[in-house]
Design brief:
This protein has one domain: Response regulator (Rossmann fold), CATH 3.40.50. The chain has a 5-stranded parallel β-sheet. Helix 1 (about 10-20) crosses helix 5. By secondary structure, the protein is α/β, with parallel strands linked by helices. It is built from 5 helices and 5 strands.
C-alpha cells in the first residue's frame, strides 16, 4: 500500500490529493495537523512506500523540527515542501536537510501527485501520469 502523509493546518492538500488518487485503490492519503503525530506514524511505515508532504504555512519551525527528526539513517522517505510564498534563502537549507522537492506558488495537485507516483515507482521519469 502506497501512502502519502500530509502535514498541514487545513485539509486542502489532502482533499486535492484524494481526488487525484481516487481511482487508485493502492494509495492512501492521510492528513496530520501535529508534527509529532506525523513523525510517530512515519516511524511505523515502510519508507519505500511513503511520501511526506509538508505545507510550510504550518510554520517554518515545525517543518524544520520534523526534518531534523528525520535525519537519522533509518528514515529515508521522500519529503515534498509546499509553500505559497517564495522560499528565498530557506530553499538551500531545506535541500540540505533532505527535502526531495519544493513547490512554491499556487498548489498544483496534478504535479504533486505525479511526483508522488514517481517516487513510489508507479511511473517512470518522463512518463505522464494517467488522469
Amino acid at each position: 500500500m502506497r501512502k502519502v502523509f500530509v502535514l498541514e493546518e487545513q485539509t486542502h492538500i489532502v482533499s486535492e490529493l484524494q481526488w487525484q488518487f481516487e481511482k487508485e485503490a493502492d494509495w492512501t492519503i492521510r492528513g496530520f495537523s501535529a508534527e509529532f503525530n506525523l513523525f510517530q506514524h512515519c516511524l511505523q511505515e515502510n519508507a519505500e512506500e511513503l511520501v511526506v508532504i509538508i505545507d510550510l504555512s504550518i510554520g517554518k519551525q515545525v517543518c524544520l523540527q520534523f526534518l531534523q527528526r528525520c535525519l537519522g539513517p533509518k528514515i529515508s522517505f521522500p519529503v515534498i515542501i509546499f509553500s505559497e510564498e517564495p522560499l528565498f534563502n530557506l530553499e538551500w537549507a531545506l535541500r540540505e536537510l533532505g527535502v526531495s522537492h519544493l513547490q512554491t506558488g499556487r498548489l498544483e495537485p496534478e504535479r504533486i501527485a505525479k511526483i508522488c507516483r514517481w517516487h513510489l515507482g508507479t511511473i517512470a521519469v518522463g512518463q505522464t501520469a494517467q488522469a
